Amino acid sequence: MTIKVLSEEVASQIAAGEVVERPASVVKELVENSLDAHAHTITIKIEGAGQTLVEVTDDGEGVAADEIAVAVTRHATSKLSCAEDLFRISTLGFRGEALASIASVSQFSICSRQADAEAGIRLSVDGGQVGDPKPTAAPVGTSVSVRNLFYNVPARLKFLKKPATERRLIDGLVTRYALAYPHVRFQLVQDGRLGLQTSGKGDRREVLGFLYGADIARQMLEVISESHDFSLKGYISPISLTRSNRKEIIFFVNGRPVQDIAITTALIQAYHNLLMVGRYPLAYLFLELPAELVDVNVHPTKAEVRFRETDQVFTGIRNAVRRALLAYTPVPEIQAVNLWSSRTWEEARQRRDTFTAGEELTSPQSEASSSQVQSDSSTSTATAFHRSGLLRLVGQVATTYLVAEGPDGLYLIDQHAAHERILFEQYMKQKAQSLPGQALLQPASVQLSPSQARLLSEQLPMLKHLGFQVELFGLNTFLVRSLPGIISHMDPEAALRVLVEDFEEDESPLEGEVEAKIIARVCKRAAIKAGQVLSEEEQRQLITQLEACESPRTCPHGRPTMIHLSVDLLERQFGRRGAR
Predict the structure, then answer these.
(1) CATH of the domain at 39
(2) One domain, residues 276 and 379
(3) Residue 38 belongs to what domain range?
(4) Distance from CA of residue 336 to its chain's centroid?
(5) Are residues 68 and 103 in the same domain?
């Protein structure tokens, strides 16, 4: 096989494949160039999910007329001069590949003017073919237009996600930079619709308010930790505000968005024993370290870094976040209760006597019958539930579990999972028809992030069928006018947020079993919670409704609603019967 040198065109397209993965990659590189140029205002215009047009305009320092042709050639940069500079990088860009890579797979145009220049300069590049620079009228700053991305590499288009997904990726990207650089005024317009606009006043909490609403911005806890060579600032959520995934855990290192398992783990460890399993905090943290302690020359997209002192960074983040949590989290007051008083025992005895007298026990089954129930409890018990109410309430344990006796042993019931199952089956039985909504006395206004707002807008017809009446009410803001009757007691904002919480990465959010997914998520949030005290009548009603369910043994997410302890097992545990 003959060895040959690749053409410049092929080499450029290979390089572009490492840097330009999708339209969001183009936005990232252009926005970083604007930030390196010390821009105060950055405007991003998107059409066709970034495939038709990506245009980024800033009021930064601009490019000199005699250097604009060099700017679109490979390995051309103003941010490095020697190899040693790679170990003290203080800018976002440094490789000198971005503009050349983008221009090689698009119809590219750049127009720029410096403050001391009488006119601007424009340069066009078509699929890597560089044209001649031409003088033009232009304001101070730079405007880059990228049209028909991947038009000359159609195979790359097949690997892009659906347009809705690409739009959400761009929304999320610009949102993160707006939080990291609050002193810069960002504006994002997608297909003529304003998706994001910040004031550029430098107040990061204000930017949080623009993105997620004033309520969430007020709840976020501020983190400030500084030492000789370590600075961590930003915001984390209290333990009452969580998400079902890690998408809202955002780290910037020296102004650069990064993905690093170590620092994410440090944050999660700081919340150890404070959050439920499967729940994650919101965090927007900005770490500053001396440039020589961070290696950013790891990956072409510059999304990964290496720390010289990883253990120190890990410990610093974990301790700083933990201190902030403990400083803002009040210590609950515990009242001493005498659990062994004669009065407590007397009340328990009276409840037992009244309960036993009011209901007649089913005659006990034979040992063979008991063994059979134990071996096939998930089937036989579910069938028996439909025949009659077989479970007899004993009480509530730890304000989380119900204890009930059945003819074949003891049942421990998770009240939250059980109520999820009940609400889910009630909801699913009614969804064959458009579910009637319960109008709210006062419509609720809910503000979402740009990516969540776009996702919810695409789901509005589906939500209407499920009994939600939601309408767009300003920039990334929605008005909730009614909720399905089954969950009408639920907080409207909580109900709306849970709908979009887990769909941001779903490639087909309106296809397949999406209705069941939405209903399951809403029922999970609407169900009674662990730690909630239930009256004896509420406990009985919960058990009765669970017995009537088609699938009483699990919640809609597959978690068990009950644990069965057979009579045979109890007798063997107490030594009344030998192991068989």
Answers:
(1) 3.30.565.10
(2) no
(3) 8-201
(4) 40
(5) yes
Residues β-bridged to residue 46: 54, 190
* pLDDT digits 0-9 by tens, 17-52: 556 889 999 999 999 999 999 999 999 999 999 999
User: How many structural domains comprise the chain?
Assistant: 3
Question: Same structural domain for residues 410 and 543?
Answer: yes
Q: What region does 170 belong to: left with phi over 0, alpha with psi -120 to 50, or beta? A: alpha
CA distances from 73 to 69, 345, 374, 481 (A): 7, 85, 74, 55
Residue type, 315: T
**Could you count the other beta carbons within 10 Å of the beta carbon of residue 448?**
22
Dig out the tokens for 70 from the structure. Answer: 């060099």
Let me know if residue 337 belongs to a domain: no
Distance of alpha carbon 459 from alpha carbon 568, whole angstroms: 51
Residues 116 and 190 in one domain: yes
Between 449 and 31, the higher pLDDT residue: 31
Residue 321, pLDDT > 90, answer yes
CATH of residue 429: 3.30.1540.20
Asked, for residue 340, whether it belongs to a domain, the answer is no
CATH number at residue 322: 3.30.230.10
Give the burial string for 378-394 (b: 16+ CB within 10 Å, else e). eeebeebbeeeebbbbb
pLDDT in tens, 46-66: 999 999 999 999 999 999 998
Q: What is the 3-state secondary structure (H, E, C) of 461-528?
A: HHHHHCCCEEEECCCCEEEEEEEEHHHCCCCHHHHHHHHHHCCCCCCCCCCCCHHHHHHHHHHHHHCC
Claim to verify: residue 86 and residue 130 sit in the same structural domain: yes
Cα–Cα distance between 456 and 348 in angstroms, integer?
A: 51
C-alpha–C-alpha distance, residues 263 and 257, integer Å: 12
Nearest C-alpha neighbor of 499 from the set 554, 459, 450: 459
For 258, residues 6+ apart whose C-beta sits below 8 A from its C-beta are 251, 252, 303, 304, 305
Residue 177 has pLDDT above 80, yes or no: yes
- On whether the CB atoms of residues 527 and 519 are closer than 8 A, the answer is no
Domain boundary among 278, 305, 328: 328
Asked if residue 526 lies in contact with residue 423, where contact means CB atoms within 8 angstroms, the answer is: yes
Residue 545 lies in a domain: yes
Which candidate, 199, 163, 162, 130, places its Cα nearest to that of 49? 163
* 182 and 232 within one domain: no
Please tell me whether residue 27 adopts helix, strand or coil conformation.
Answer: helix
Token pair of 463 as six digits: 């939500």
Which residue is listed with tokens 């699929």? 127
Predicted pLDDT of residue 493: 82
Of the pLDDT bands very low, low, confident and very high (cuts 50, 70, 90), residue 284 is very high
Lookup: tokens for 475: 């920039």
Residue whose C-alpha is closest to residue 524's, from 547, 506, 501, 540: 501
The span from the CA of 28 to the CA of 487, in Å, is 41
| Paired residues of 288 in beta bridges | 231
Edge to edge, the sheet with strand 231-236 lists 221-226, 231-236, 283-288, 249-253, 256-258
- Whether residue 280 is found in the same domain as residue 153: no
Same domain, residue pair 316 and 380 = no
pLDDT band at 245 (very low <50, low <70, confident <90, very high): confident
Q: Is residue 568 one of the residues assigned to a domain?
A: yes
